[in-house]
Amino acid sequence: MFIPDQPIKSHKDDILGRSAFAQSLADALLSYKDKDSLVVGLFGEWGSGKTSSINMILEYIKSKTNRKKKNKPLILSFNPWNFSDQNNLILQFFNQLSLILKIREQDEKTRKAGDKLLTYARFFSPTPPADIPFAETRDELNYLLSRQPHKILVFMDDIDRLNNIEIKQIFQLIKVICNFPNIIYIISLDKKVVVSALEKVQEGNGQEYLEKMVQVPFEIPLISKNEVEQYLFNKMTELINDIPSHRVDRIYWGNIYHAGLKHFFGSLRDVARYINSLKFSFEMVKKEINMVDFFAITSLQIFVPEVYAGIRDNKNLFVGIISPESPSRYKDRELCEDILSKTENFPKELIRDFVTRLFPRVDTLFQDVRYENEALFKWRKEGRVCSPEMFDTFFRLSISEGAMTRQEIENIIGQSRDKAAFKSSLLRLNQEEKIAPFLIRLEDYIHSDALKNSFENIVAALMDTGDFFPEEGVGEGNVEINIPIKILEINHQFIHRLTTQKERFEMLKRVMESVEESLYPLVKHLAHIHWQHARFVKRDVPDPEELRTVDAYQMSVLEEIVLKKIQQWAENGKLAKHANFSAILLKWMDLGDDRKASEFVNKMIESDSGLLDFVGSFIKRSSIQGNIDLIFSGELKANLSRLKQLTDLKSIERRLKIISSYPGFKQLEKGKRAAVQEFLITISKNF
């Protein structure tokens, strides 16, 4: 349930120890014997608990006098704010007070006083009586009220909500018009507001005027910072009671709380607004995001909304990391300073320090602090608002379409104990166009001890499904990735969690031998190992031995496994249709099987359709989908000079010229036409 922004009704709901004060004041009211009118003032700022105190005073008086049959006090709760902006405020007060005096159970003297009160009220109507003397009527009313046996307790709340003229009118009512015997007025108000109002509508000192009006002033006991803080903690504990304790970093929470959060709460009303806002959105995102950051961002939304809006609308200024040497650093700092200065109620230094703890990039803008790329993985895994992938969730209050929930990711990762189940999940994610966001988030769990026994299954499943995935993908936060490269990076990190080359080699050997449905991930990983050893690449110096995945002999064993896989794909006809045929073909040549590779190529290009497939495999295609046709780039994937070892390029040139001259060439798909034209241009220029 939401916390109602309403005063409490009973001492049972008192969490701040105000009931003792209310009881003492109620006892004093009941024990007052003097017949002269009295005005008791309850002073306190907005939200300090004035109305709650009145409710507890009334509760105690009613409980103590409930069994009295005679002389029990008569109680009128009159809220003048209900009649604000109306000319009949005074008449309404007379009517309500008269009803209290004239109820059937009252004695005759009290009822007579009620009747006379209505007569007296006519003098303050738009048409006052001309045939009744005012002074005699007032004297008779005073006499009747002094003789009737009851104390009349009139409670007036929310006086500080009235306009300036109405505030003065209330004091005239109390001290001049209705200054009757046996009436005690208990009024609540914010002293600063009322003093200011009185000074604006009359000459003289408002403070002195108020002191003349109120004989017995009481300041509502101040709510201590500790009391507000304890109330806040209690409500937050209720809110997160079903969140596992490991989801809340207590050290980080302490830093965030003391850096800024605690300074926002001055009253219970502040806490109520904050907790209600948290409750409204918490259930939608509580499993996906960092709890501490959510608490912090919500506090900015409630207490410094201009700063909150500035952060929300300038994502790239706050998320991720920036180098201290970046040329945009000083411009970004100026923009950030402008956003963080949009606060009047809190010191600018406080807001800046608070936001800096939430967004490390801001820390770099103002200080020479450097954060490495590894921090991005950590922030994303922790669901931090400073992560580019998580930022939007904090401000949209929902998971974006195509994104994955933390629970969904962890469920799939949990299936990695079973390689077949994990493979099925990867293929399903690909069908749902979620493979890119999953791969990005999978990196966050590479160093998790929970996956210690699943390394091999994960690596094997990714290698055996990689051919089914698109080459490019978009993850959360519109992060674009090359999927084959991302798979290589993930597998490399998992493999290097094993500490020795022997362990890594044995695992890679088992994985590569088990892969049946994909080929390119194996070729890609072997190419990476070749890079480490400076083999088949333009690189003079290899990686240090301790950084290489395997040693030279182990690499040769893996080469034999991959070569055998390539030959199998060539024999069963799948290689020619592979999306990455050209890269696989070149690696086939690297592995020293030129004769078989040449036989395969020449057989493939015997037909025109095979030749077009062959040519197309060497063209990088990038497209823009819009109101026009697809646009293809004509960049070649590889240097054609290597193909001279496999086939006659001039023969290919002649055939492509003939094909391009066919009447039906223009009916070919745009990609194949672009590939033919680019191939012809390249051959004519270089051969």
Model description:
This protein is mainly alpha-helical. Among the domains are: 11-219, P-loop containing nucleotide triphosphate hydrolases (Rossmann fold, 3-Layer(aba) Sandwich); 225-369, no CATH class; 605-687, no CATH class. It contains 32 helices and seven strands. It has helices at 19-31, 50-65, 89-102, 108-121, 134-147, 164-177, 191-201, 206-213, 225-239, 250-259, 268-285, 291-303, 305-312, 315-318, 329-340, 348-358, 360-366, 374-381, 391-396, 406-414, 419-431, 435-442, 455-465, 483-495, 501-514, 520-532, 552-571, 581-590, 594-604, 608-616, 649-661, 670-686, and strands at 38-43, 74-78, 152-156, 183-189, 216-219, 472-474, 480-482. The strands form two sheets. A five-stranded parallel β-sheet has the order 2-3-4-1-5, with helices on both faces. The chain is elongated, with a radius of gyration of 41 Å. 35% of the residues are buried. Residues 1-5 and 621-638 have low confidence and may be disordered.
